[in-house]
Design brief:
153 residues, 7 helices, two-stranded antiparallel sheet, 2 domains, extended, AhpD-like
Length: 153
Amino acid sequence: MKREKNKKTEGRGRPALIQEAKALLCKPELADELAEALVGKNGELGFLLKVLKERPRTFNPYLLKGMTVYKEPKALNRKTAELVAVSAAAALHCEHCLEAHMGRAVTEGATLDEIMDTILVAGAISESSMLSVAFRKYKQLEGKIKKGGAGKE
């Protein structure tokens, strides 16, 4: 049995709702409104967001996703979401992200001890990850050298 084609389609067969969403996400007016809301809350738009704002079709979904992930998480509370962000920012060495998310974590009720623990966990994982990758490469090199095939270039 053939499926009936969705009657709400436009253009290349995409549902009308998707077309509407894409059109809205590309609007500079939405970018302006989102930026104004953020500036009203934080006092400024950071470097990354200023650059992204030059492309509303990228800025708008990026900012909306961030609002959903940090401000409206499904299973985590806001403080925990910000502590997770601190952990990721620490592991990825993102100085500006650390400043932003540590500040937001405090705003959401995190203590300095909670932030310190989060950073220490991130550091332990980062260290383990680095050592795991480096030791695997080391063992590969060791195996090649023992077979007489590498390391003498």
